[in-house]
Structure formats: C-alpha cells, structure tokens
Amino acid sequence: MRPLKQPPARVVFTNPFHFLAFGMGSGLSPVAPGTTGTLAAIPFAWLMAEYLSLPGYLAVTLFALVIGFWICGRSSEMLGVHDHRGIVWDEFVGYFVTMIAVPTEWYWYLLGFFLFRFFDVIKPWPAHYFDNRIHNGIGIVMDDVVAGFYALAVMHVTIYGVGHWL
User: Fold this and answer.
1) What is the pLDDT of residues 87-120, one digit of tens each?
2) What is the pTM for the complete model shown?
3) What angle do CA 94, 74, 132 make, to 5 degrees?
4) DSSP state for residue 23 in the 8-state scheme
5) What's the whole-number mean pLDDT along residues 47-72?
6) Are 46 and 40 in contact (CB under 8 A)?
7) Considering only 16-20, 45-49, 59-63, 157-161, which range has the smallest mean pLDDT?
8) Of all residues in the chain, what percent are helix, strand and coil, respectively (each to 5)?
9) For residues 110 and 123, what is the distance between their CA atoms, to the nearest angstrom?
10) Other Cβ atoms closer than 10 A to 54
11) How far apart are CA 43 and CA 49, in angstroms?
12) Terminus of the chain with fewer CB atoms < 10 Å: N or C?
C-alpha cells in the first residue's frame, strides 16, 4: 500500500475545511500526524477545562463533535480519500472527550494523552466498526469519540481509585 500524499501546506492553510480538519496544521506532520494532532489538542482541552464550567466544556466538546462530522467529511471528500491520515480534528474531539471532568494537573493530561492514543490505535468495539464501515465524516470522528470514552472511563477509575493517593 502506497502512503497517502500530503496536500501542500498552502492548500491546508488557505482552505478553512482543511485548516480545521488538519488541526490548524498539526496534521501535516510527516511522522505520526494523529499523535501530533492529539498533542496539539492538549492546550485547547486545558484552556477549556480551566476557563469553562463543566457544562461549558461539554457544550464546546459537543459542538466540536457535530461540526467535526461536516469538517472532516468535507475535507476528506475534497482530498478524495476517506479519513486521510492528516485529518486530526477527530483526535481533538476524542481527546476532549477523554478529559471531561478531569483535574487540570499536568500528569492527568499526560495520562489522558497516552490512554487516548492507546485506545485510538487499538480501536475497541464499536470504534473499529465506525472506522471500517461508516465512510463519511461521522465515521471519521466517531471512532475517536469511542476511543475517548474508553480513555475517559480509565481516567476516572484512576483519578477516583488511585488518584486520591497522589
């Protein structure tokens, strides 16, 4: 299988669908764009948690999810490739889900990063279904949302089961 060619940076930075879908350029990374996109999501998740109430955080996350269906689907359609590896808006949304109601200490954000990446790579049910069977923006985003919910569950078990010892 040939690796997918990255669109030129000028295309990503001048097209609003690509700009957002490519995580404001983080998806242009030649190595591990999904990981790079998740790293780029960390400051956004922290700012949301630090400055918004929990309902505000949830509202922004839900908005990012719903608009992500359209953004990722449209970018994918314009590129002519379902779920191009440079599309990382879904990583942003998945990481936002991972960090719901998580304390803002750096170590929780680091753990959330590793847990989300782990579940995003292994794609437990039903993430695998969305990734392989739904070929539109919903499929692109929902596998990461599912990974985010798995990571969120582990985060909260860790925070409330082990975290009180830290």
Assistant:
1) 899 999 999 999 999 999 999 999 999 999 999 8
2) 0.89
3) 55
4) G
5) 96
6) no
7) 16-20
8) 75, 0, 25
9) 20
10) 10
11) 10
12) N
